[in-house]
Every structure is written in structure tokens, then in C-alpha cells.
Specification:
This protein is mainly β. The protein has one helix and eight strands. Among the domains are: about 25 residues, no CATH class; about 90 residues, Immunoglobulin-like, CATH 2.60.40. It is elongated, with a radius of gyration of 24 Å. The relative contact order is 0.18.
């Protein structure tokens, strides 16, 4: 006889009873899990936000940081921007990349899912190697921001700001 998870008895072989598995959203199943309904209510109805939206004052675009033989490189994945939307500053061993991605405004929309973050962002990175602050360069192309600093044997300190091209 198959095990029924609603039974109070443990499954064959012992162990605690398991909880019923939640069917994936949109699976066409007739059962609706209470947690799914609460998520929809609190995100869409109570707060006026679509499912998946996380309201935060600043978000953090994913960034790879790596070294080559000569440079320290910060490679940020951030589509939908223009070079003038960024500020890039290096001060006292700390690289700060900030900006704001504006929401796309093309009429009123009713989102079913929203995963693309919009609004202000800021990333701060402690630079792990000695670099020349005057070598700071930033280029935005094809949805990626690349910031480069030339490595040097002995660190030079002092603030430096660069215009993104």
C-alpha cells in the first residue's frame, strides 16, 4: 500500500512523516499551496508590487573581480544603462561604483514576475593589490561595465575620479 503523507504514522522504513511536496507554480495542478497564495497577496495586493519584486533602497549588480598580469579588473553585469549613468571613484584603496537604472516606461504594465532590478545601486570594493590610482579607466559596452586599475609594486594613495566612456 502506498504511503500517504497525511497519515500520522511514519513512512515505511521509519523516520518522521514527510510534508506534502508543493506543486510548481503554473504546473496546472489543482492544488493551491497557502504559501503561494500569501506571497501573491502580500506582493501584489497589499504592497502593489509584482511577485518576485524586492524593494530595497540600493541593489548590487553582480560583479567579477580578477587580475591579469598588469591590471586589476572589475567586470559588472548591468544592462540598460548609459555611460553617464555611472560614477566610478577610487579613494584610499576603495573602489566605489554607483548609479541608477531607471525603469522602462512604456505605458502601464501589470507584471506577473519582476526580476530586473531598477533604482539606485552602489558597490564598494576594497582593492586587494597595490594599484596606480591615476590609471583608473572605465568603459561601458554591451551591458557590461569594465573598470581597470594598473597594478604597481608599491601602492600610491589619493582620490581619483574617472568619467565613464
Amino acid at each position: 500500500m502506498p504511503y500517504n503523507s497525511s497519515d500520522a504514522s511514519p513512512p515505511p522504513g521509519g523516520g518522521p512523516p514527510s510534508t506534502p511536496a508543493r506543486p510548481p507554480r503554473g504546473s496546472g495542478g489543482t492544488g493551491v499551496h497557502l504559501a503561494d497564495e500569501l506571497e501573491v497577496y502580500f506582493n501584489e495586493h497589499a504592497h502593489g508590487r509584482p511577485v518576485g519584486f524586492v524593494a530595497s533602497p540600493k541593489w548590487k549588480p553582480p560583479t567579477d573581480v580578477y587580475e591579469t598580469g598588469d591590471d586589476l579588473i572589475f567586470h559588472m553585469d548591468i544592462a540598460g544603462m548609459q555611460p553617464d549613468d555611472f560614477t566610478v571613484e577610487f579613494t584610499e584603496g576603495l573602489l566605489t561604483i554607483a548609479g541608477e537604472r531607471a525603469p522602462r516606461q512604456q505605458g502601464k504594465r501589470h507584471y506577473h514576475n519582476m526580476e530586473v532590478q531598477v533604482g539606485p545601486f552602489e558597490r564598494r570594493f576594497r582593492v586587494p593589490v597595490s594599484v596606480d590610482p591615476t590609471s583608473l579607466r572605465a568603459v561601458y559596452e554591451d551591458g557590461f561595465l569594465e573598470v581597470r586599475l594598473r597594478k604597481v609594486p608599491q601602492g600610491l594613495s589619493g582620490p581619483h575620479t574617472v568619467k565613464v566612456t
